[in-house]
Amino acid sequence: MEIFSARLKCLRERNALCTYQIADKLSLSTLSYEDLENGQRKPDVDMLAKLPDILGESVDFLIGVTDYDKLCAHFKLQYMRSVVGYVVSEQRMKELEEILSESHSKSTQYQLETNTNITKEYVSDMLKFKAEQRELRDTLYTRLREIPFVSIKTFRNIDNEVAETISRISSNFSEYYPPLLSIDWRLSSFKNTYPPRPD
To answer: How many helices and strands in the chain, by DSSP H and E?
Structure first.
């Protein structure tokens, strides 16, 4: 129960609570509660049921089933969204460049300028998502390092999940996002038309 004890203390301090305050909510003496934090006492089912309401985190986090507290889970979700956003922008840009290449001889100057501007938007989106990725990854890693007993496997799994997401979307892009030409993307009607954006 070393993980439980360490995370219990971490969450108590994070919530700026004194030992006697949590002890009172758990119907324990202060000494009995301190035994929980010192690893000299195991929590019973009733205690575990009360702790999420008191500390704002899940039992799974407290006992080490997951290394993600709520904030880490939020940062990870945002990080994965920025990864998806980057891949979508990159794939859409490649698709648009293919359309431009195939239709170059039939395009008017206005259409070429419009499409070039849209390509620039994709490049801008890619740079934005890349910057978000760096910031969110650093924030997520910093936060995880502050949590007691986070497994090295957790950090590896983040990188693996990112790699799998990129591979899955890149290799099956049309299954996730309809081709540009199938959603009324025509070189004759690009004005005020924008590609689907990730959530």
So the answer is: 9, 0
The model's pLDDT over 12-25, given as tens digits with 9 standing for 90+, comes to 999 999 999 999 99
Residue 44 CB partners (closer than 8 Å, separation 6+) = none
Question: pLDDT class for 194, splitting at 50, 70, 90?
Answer: very low
Half-sphere exposure of 44 (CA within 13 A, CB side): 6
Q: Which residue has 């009360």 as its token pair?
A: 50
| Single-letter amino acid, residue 19 | T
Q: CB of 86 within 8 A of CB of 174?
A: no
What pLDDT is recorded for position 117? 74
Q: Check residue 109 and give its pLDDT.
A: 55
**128-158 CB burial, b ≥16 within 10 A, e <16:** ebbebbeebbeebbebbeebbebeeebeeeb
* Cα→Cα distances 118→10, 179, 185, 191, 197, Å: 49, 16, 12, 10, 13
For 134, phi then psi, to 5°, come to -60, -45
